[in-house]
């Protein structure tokens, strides 16, 4: 059988009218572009596809993100960037009337969208806000989190106000390494108040639905580097997905991916969007991708042929485990299968 959505000999981009890409870990890490990302995304535009960008990072405006991407050599306008604060405002429009006061936990990227949506910003629970909206910014600290906790002290079933989180990414990739993300900050408030936020960004649908509506996509493809936000969100939005190995989740995580976090395609970098994607062929207990072949033998996942490319071996191993109906802890997996020569250094 063929694993994934592609036909034999086709590329991940065949039939795609809009490419939607995550930013951190896909286009850049910190301020600098990741290898081959800019050239590949520009090529997609040159070949007639629209390219949009979806980011859970709420610290910057769409205009500032577009300016950053332009400085890297991409052809981007502010309208090509869909941010989690924009998705949060779409949710809030159904919950809180314009003109209401919102307690904002976050930075400029969130404040700008709150004001554009017609709301009044406050930083204090004493101003009786109609809702709390929380997003990541490097300057968020204890004082802002405490104000959110004060405002959210009343449970929802007792008349408490709405709480919207732009996203709940546990981590965020930076030039110096992996740092805590908005999910850790949202969790701090949750620990204090004992209630959960409604999430606007990935992996929830609002941000994907907003991107589709804005770009007019009929057959979109989403590119991400995280399984629990990017791939899970794309699947929830019924969108084809690519996992690129330039960011957070590595081969080990791919092999162990839950059913709702399994991408349609796995690539080393964005150049492989334009390469024919090898079919995954399963015959009995053997799975072949290109010239890489693995075999399930009881509790052992054996490498029959490593092939010439580590990426095809990883694809074969992932397909074998995913197609078995068994979790990864039900196998003995050779280290060669999850070797990671793909990490960008």
From TrEMBL:
The record's SUPFAM superfamilies line, in alphabetical order, gives: HAD-like
Alphabetic keyword roster: Hydrolase
Entries under Gene3D superfamilies matching the protein: HAD superfamily/HAD-like (3.40.50.1000)
- Quote one Gene Ontology molecular function term: phosphatase activity
> One Pfam family for this entry, by name?
Hydrolase_like
Its Gene Ontology cellular component terms are: cytoplasm
Which InterPro entries does this chain map to?
HAD-like_sf (IPR036412), HAD-SF_hydro_IIA (IPR006357), HAD_sf (IPR023214)
Q: Report what the protein is called.
A: HAD-IIA family hydrolase
Which organism encodes this protein? Microbacterium enclense
Query: Lineage from the top down?
Result: Bacteria, Bacillati, Actinomycetota, Actinomycetes, Micrococcales
């Amino acid at each position: 059988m063929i694993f994934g959505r592609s036909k034999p000999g086709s590329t991940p981009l065949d039939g795609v009218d809009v490419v939607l890409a995550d930013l951190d870990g896909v286009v850049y890490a910190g301020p600098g572009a990741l290898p081959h990302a800019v050239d590949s995304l520009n090529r997609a535009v040159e070949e007639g596809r629209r390219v949009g960008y979806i980011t859970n990072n709420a610290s910057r405006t769409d205009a500032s993100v577009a300016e950053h991407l332009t400085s890297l050599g991409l052809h981007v306008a502010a309208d090509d960037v869909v941010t989690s604060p924009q998705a949060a405002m779409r949710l809030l429009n159904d919950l809180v009337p314009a003109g209401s006061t919102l307690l904002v936990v976050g930075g400029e990227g969130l404040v700008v969208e709150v004001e554009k949506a017609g709301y009044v910003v406050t930083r204090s629970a004493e101003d009786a806000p109609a809702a709390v909206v929380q997003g990541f910014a490097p300057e968020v600290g204890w004082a802002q989190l405490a104000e959110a906790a004060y405002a959210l002290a009343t449970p929802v079933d007792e008349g408490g106000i709405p709480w919207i989180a732009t996203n709940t990414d546990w981590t965020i990739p930076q030039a110096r390494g992996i740092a805590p993300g908005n999910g850790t900050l949202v969790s701090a408030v949750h620990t204090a108040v004992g209630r959960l936020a409604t999430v606007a960004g990935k992996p929830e649908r609002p941000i994907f639905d907003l991107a589709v509506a804005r770009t007019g996509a009929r057959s979109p493809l989403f590119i991400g580097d995280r399984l629990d936000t990017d791939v899970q969100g794309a699947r929830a939005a019924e969108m084809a997905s690519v996992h690129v190995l330039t960011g957070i989740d590595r081969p080990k995580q791919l092999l162990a991916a839950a059913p709702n976090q399994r991408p349609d395609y796995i690539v080393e970098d964005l150049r492989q969007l334009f390469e024919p994607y090898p079919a995954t062929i399963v015959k009995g207990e053997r799975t072949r991708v290109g010239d890489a072949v693995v075999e399930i033998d009881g509790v052992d996942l054996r490498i029959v042929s490593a092939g010439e490319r580590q990426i095809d071996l990883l694809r074969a191993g992932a397909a074998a485990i995913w197609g078995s109906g068994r979790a990864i802890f039900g196998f003995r997996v050779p280290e060669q299968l999850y070797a990671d020569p793909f990490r960008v250094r």
